[in-house]
Every structure is written in structure tokens, then in C-alpha cells.
Design goal:
The chain is of the alpha/beta class. Helices cover 29% and strands 26% of the residues. The chain has helices at 17-33, 55-58, 68-73, 152-160, 185-201, 251-259, 262-265, 268-283; strands spanning 3-9, 38-40, 78-86, 92-100, 103-109, 134-136, 139-143, 165-170, 204-209, 213-214, 217-218, 224-226, 232-235, 242-248. The protein is globular, with a radius of gyration of 18 Å. The relative contact order is 0.14.
Length: 284
């Protein structure tokens, strides 16, 4: 069963929910016209990234009526999108929702908030505390939002839970101009991280980054897809908005794990034991 996935590398308007929803609906319509089974958007695609004091103003609950047109659109095409989630206790999260069949069937809250250099996510956002797969009609999916990919436990825990694919939405700036084919150091680094993650988890990995400028910062684009063997099967080069359409077979993850049985031979109890030992030594 081959599934067509559209990665929509777009430039949201900071703080303008209505304009960004319209942009999402247009991309979903394009995905449907192209025969895609799913369309995925970047981190905080509904709101923009450098929100600061706008954060509480754009936050939405999972039950918000504002999502109704997108939920309706998800009856035909599965949708992954980034938004600021307002939890029932009032906290706000950098979150990624998976919409399918007219409902929100899963939400991942970014675990590793970026609070260094130009970033200050912890100023307005709470951190997520779990990595749970989403049971989609397309297969078992995991989500790692940007910085989550840079910390090994997220991909490892999704690997242990047998995901077929990992979606990596990001709002990553363009940094480090270099000579040669790679062009940007940030693109080269992302490519290495994504290929390694796909190889070690034996899952499809789809990275969808945003473009455009906010607060003088240029976002780097470079969306791309890797198969469960770590091979790049599609990429959007350059800094412009665009669409990347890739056909994937979720069964390829199972084939990869049969050929090289990494998950079968993994020893998670050893990791747990050694982490407990390290914690005991810290307390001593």
C-alpha cells in the first residue's frame, strides 16, 4: 500500500490565525487534487514562530471551533499541523496535531523547548512530557518537533513503540553559509540527523521546515524525506515556499526490520537498569 504524502513548506503570517488557516486549507485542497493521502505542515504553522506576548492570544484548545474547517477537510486527507495548544489547566504548549476523519486523533507537545541563543520558548510555553505514537489510517506515526529530534530519547522511544514513520516539523533558521553542494551548514546538519534517525529507527522520516522571515530571522526550508534505510528519497532545496510530494510504503519499515532486526535484538531493560544506576550514583 503506497501512500502519497505532501510536505507543505510554507511561510505563515505571524499571529494571523485566519490567514494561516486559509493557507492550510489551500494546501490541503492541492494535496487532495494531487491524490495525496496526507499533508504535513511545519512547526507552529497556524501561528508563526516568534510569538512572544501573542502566545496566549493565538492559543487554541483541541476542541476549538476554529479548527472545524480543517477537521472537515481531514475527512479526505490526513493533516499534520503545528499550533499553540491551550490545555485545560491554562498552560500553553508548542504542539502538533494530527487530524483525520474529522477529528483530532493525536497531539504531540514539544518536549525539548529551545531556550538559548535567539530562542526563548520556555518564556511562554510549558514542555511536553511524553512520546506516544498516533494510530493513523496511514500506519503508526510518531512526531518529534524540531529540537526533540536533537535528543536521542525521543526517537528511541518511538522506535521501541514500533512506529512506521516519524514526522519532524520544524521552524529552523538558515545558518552557516558554506561552499559546496550543501550551501547551508544548517541544511547539512539536518540531513545528517535525519538520515541517522531513519537508519537507527528503521522508519520513514519526513522533515517539514518553514520558510520566510520573522524578527529579522530567515527560516531555512530544506524539507526532505528519508526511507527506513536512511536514503533520501525527496528534498526541497533553497529557501522558497513549496511542496514536496513523495510516495511512501509503510510496509517498508517492517521489511527493513526483518532484514536487520535491530528492534528484535534491542535491550531496553539494560538501558533502564543503567539509568537507574546513574541516578543512584547522582544521589549518593
Amino acid at each position: 500500500m503506497t501512500i502519497r504524502i505532501q510536505l507543505s513548506q510554507l511561510e505563515p503570517t505571524l499571529g494571523n490565525l485566519e490567514a494561516n488557516r486559509a493557507l492550510h486549507l489551500d494546501e490541503v485542497a492541492r494535496a487532495k487534487e494531487g491524490g495525496a493521502g496526507a499533508v504535513v505542515f511545519p512547526e507552529l504553522s497556524l501561528t508563526g514562530y516568534f510569538l512572544k506576548d501573542q502566545t496566549p492570544e493565538v492559543a487554541l484548545s483541541r476542541e476549538s471551533k476554529f479548527l472545524a474547517p480543517l477537521l472537515e477537510a481531514s475527512r479526505d486527507v490526513s493533516i499534520g499541523l503545528g499550533f499553540v495548544e491551550r490545555a485545560r489547566d491554562g498552560r500553553t504548549y508548542n504542539a502538533y496535531a494530527w487530524l483525520e476523519g474529522g477529528a483530532v486523533i493525536g497531539v504531540h507537545r514539544k518536549v525539548h523547548l529551545v531556550t538559548y541563543g535567539m530562542f526563548e520558548e520556555s518564556r511562554d510555553l510549558a514542555a511536553g512530557e511524553q512520546y506516544r505514537p498516533i494510530e493513523s489510517r496511514l500506519g503508526r506515526l510518531g512526531v518529534l518537533i524540531c529540537e526533540d529530534l536533537w535528543h536521542m530519547e525521543g526517537a528511541y522511544l518511538l522506535f521501541q513503540q514500533g512506529v512506521d514513520a516519524i514526522v519532524v516539523p520544524s521552524a529552523s533558521p538558515a545558518r552557516g553559509v558554506e561552499s559546496g553542494a550543501d550551501g547551508l551548514g544548517s541544511v547539512r546538519t539536518w540531513r545528517s540527523l535525519l538520515a541517522t534517525t531513519a537508519t537507527m529507527t528503521q522508519a520513514w522520516v519526513a522533515h517539514v521546515n518553514r520558510t520566510g522571515f520573522e524578527d529579522g530571522i530567515c527560516f531555512g526550508g530544506g524539507s526532505r524525506v528519508f526511507d527506513p534505510y536512511g536514503d533520501e528519497v525527496g528534498a526541497l532545496e533553497g529557501l522558497d515556499a513549496g511542496r514536496l510530494v513523495v510516495d511512501v510504503d509503510p510496509r517498508e519499515a517492517a521489511r527493513a526490520r526483518t532484514r536487520v532486526p535491530l528492534r528484535r535484538d534491542e535491550k531496553p531493560w539494560l538501558l533502564r537498569r543503567e539509568l537507574d544506576r546513574l541516578a543512584d550514583e547522582e544521589e549518593a
